[in-house]
Amino acid sequence: MLDEEQQSRVIEMAWEDRTPFEAIERLYGLPEKEVIKLMRKNLKQKTFKNWRARVSGRKTKHASLRPEGVDRGYCPSQYKVKSANK
Questions:
Q1: Distance of alpha carbon 49 from alpha carbon 33, whole angstroms
Q2: How far lies 27's CA from each of 7, 50, 85, 86, in Å?
Q3: What dihedral angle (degrees, nearest 10) is formed by the CA atoms of 38, 42, 48, 51?
Q4: Contact by Cβ (8 Å): 2, 37
Q5: Per the domain annotation, does 19 fall within a domain?
Q6: Which InterPro entries does this chain map to (predicted)?
Q7: Higher per-residue pLDDT: 67 or 56
Q8: Predicted model pTM
């Protein structure tokens, strides 16, 4: 069972268009069907429906559908260090 922090991270990864379900399964042991259940449980109904419509069939959400040569699930600028002077 995932703790609250892990569930939050899985939801964040599932929400990201470029993170494939296979990456979530590799990191957290949740196959796509379990991720969908987690999303359904934790999102508002309308938000869940919008998410499902967006990710269904999306090439970037399934490693087997990705173009050859795409081997990472995030943009290089996605995890920039935030400045302490804000």
A1: 15
A2: 12, 25, 33, 32
A3: -70
A4: no
A5: yes
A6: CHP03643
A7: 56
A8: 0.70
Residue that has been written with the tokens 């999306």 in this structure: 58
Measured CA to CA in angstroms, residue 40 lies from 68, 79, 84 at distances of 31, 27, 36
Give the pLDDT score at 47.
96
Task: Quick: pLDDT tens for 19-37.
Answer: 889 999 999 999 999 999 9
Range of the domain at 20: 2-53
Please tell me whether residue 71 adopts helix, strand or coil conformation: coil
Q: How many domains does the chain have?
A: 1
Token output for 57: 């069939």
Query: Looking at the domain assignment, is residue 42 inside a domain?
Result: yes
Distance between CA atoms of 74 and 47, rounded to whole angstroms? 22
- Determine contact, residues 51/43, Cβ cutoff 8 Å: yes
